[in-house]
């Protein structure tokens, strides 16, 4: 038994038996912090308590003394559980370091550069719920066109992150930003269908904006529909486009549509981590999300996506349940 | 019956005062020894956080009722620097607050309801309730 | 306080104060197993003990009674640590399930088919040290040629596994099995160099066997040299080829060499998980590995790799420290 | 001084006998109350494992010395089915043995040295030593 702890504890106990003050209990509490830090097990605490009490009350009845031996016996298992906890904490820390490294690797692997386009303001944010991101946003561009892919593996964590790397290499194999959205989805669908087991599905949206014609052409593989904001009418509409999730069957017919932007119009592309935010009271309404976006429509696209993330994080009580990705294209 | 009372936290002595207040109120509501000790430990952690990270603040204790449930509400507020990463602070084993079972996750476990509101640079308010069973 | 536990504990304590037998302590011990399973915290145990003692010894001194209140105060933190442990155990279980899923995803993503070639017997085994594999073997083939890539990310676990997916997509972008090994390494090196952070390196061997000419052409990017076994002389030689690890610099000069096979000759390609096996007594000698391989030279290539794995697993006391990959090409 | 002694484990009563033997020997060597309880708990777990999984077996207790160190060696042996996956049985939180801190990882933690030899289908021998500090 660590003699120094015994001495300190006896002093606190002695004071407390004399006067039952809150201050003495506070000292006991602070002392227990130290005990835990020094790996003193609960059965040792009982043993220290017993020895102290025997010194403080010299004629302590044998019954009381014995009773502590039973208590020590009972506490042994609690001590074991605590030691098990310390092992697990160490494991957990190692795992965290591995995940941090993995998350860095993923960020380097999947990094994409937000292009600088004439007449178009682009904002992007992608925040994983856990260490690894199962959402993905990727940009392709040339002089007059900028393409953007937004994808979400159904599920999150490491399995989703592994799948996501596939989309990246698929996108890398494409030739340019002008490729038709339905062609892009078809190429990626074939890759996913070939490489991924039947239980893994990916939703993906692909859109390409032509700065000369201010035209946004898009297609969707079972992905969350983007919101198009018309500045003139001050109204949102969903950009619907039918198409099956990636990886289900090799041949899918995707729909392609376009919309022409006026100045200040913007499109908000996202994953279901944005629309399926939950607060304690239930799902956050689409109208709420729209109101939040509209309230910052005059900000830059990047400021907009960051503001929306912060607001939704707050509404969710800082418990992010799914990966969150938001991309805004705004004509300026 | 005093229904609301509070202690300003400016020094370490005030931590003891807040504990004492909490224990008295807990006794009055009818909590047993173990729950009294839990509530007091929660108050202790909250007051200590204020003392260590915000410098000063306030602990307010309220006896509350909801339907036929009786409980004790502890509100810890400060105008300190705020918490920049709430998720991280609420994580287990995040060791700034002194290791095993301590810190805000500990407070959450000791009480039944727990809510944290913080604005970076403006301060933090934590509300925690324990219900009588 | 759970009344039923109180009643049971009081009975045990009462018996124990009467007679301090081992049997009573054993009952206390068994009882504590139940307490822990029912989530009774240590501070509650003290409280139960106090209440029981007060009933058993009606004139218990106030000092003793009070002393338990301090003990309860001290135990609160131990109770918290225990609850934290239960949370962590649940997390750990979820994580295990996630890793199993991730490992399945990886196997599906990286799956490769061992080709069936006329005149060449091929065997392959790849076993990860942890759930995820940071080693990779991949086959390409046409009528007369079969190419094989064997790669190892420096490091293991999830970060390594993420990197590995890159090699797969790089290989997929190649046109055929006849591509020169130095061209293959050059292509993959450029991909890796572009996508991976400076701290991640990959060693890779690429060889292609022409069944018409019985010729094996190969190049290496800092990879473990393969062992070539000449059946006639019954001797092993290392197939050396200079070349930097993948991902260090964009332009690397690789060396290309060839060797012609006679009947029964074979080449053993591997990762350092094979050569750096350790037993309790230290590293296992290369000669030992060669002896093991030679002892089964008359078996099929697949039987050979499986036998070598089993033997080395045994020698290592079943503690596999690194991912283990072995490929054999044997002329028949 | 009796230096070696053993108990056959055939019924639950024998678990208590093994514990008693272990406690006596531990006392004799000079272990304090807490260590006595730890050694006894370890013996309890080992004997219980024999009783539950092998049906019958033996617990042997030896007082040992090494240099100027004194200790107690516990050997639990059975001719039961053996352990098919030692790695798994030694894993924490592997819940067949009744949860938190129990089972063989618990025994390993309670003692200072721990060795397990098992042949599938032939039986298991576990040796665990506690040294007097
Ligand atoms: Mn997802
Ligand atoms: Mn999602
Ligand atoms: Mn490796
Ligand atoms: Mn390796």
Automatic annotation (TrEMBL), chains A, C:
It comes from the Bacteria. GO terms for molecular function: phosphatase activity. Residues 117-331 form the PPM-type phosphatase domain. Keywords: Hydrolase. This is Phosphoserine phosphatase. The lineage of its organism: Bacteria, Bacillati, Bacillota, Bacilli, Bacillales.
UniProtKB/TrEMBL annotation, chains B, D:
InterPro entries: HATPase_C_sf, HATPase_dom. Pfam families: HATPase_c (PF02518). Residues 34-133 form the Histidine kinase/HSP90-like ATPase domain. It comes from the Bacteria. SMART domains: HATPase_c (SM00387). This is Anti-sigma regulatory factor. The lineage of its organism: Bacteria, Bacillati, Bacillota, Bacilli, Bacillales.
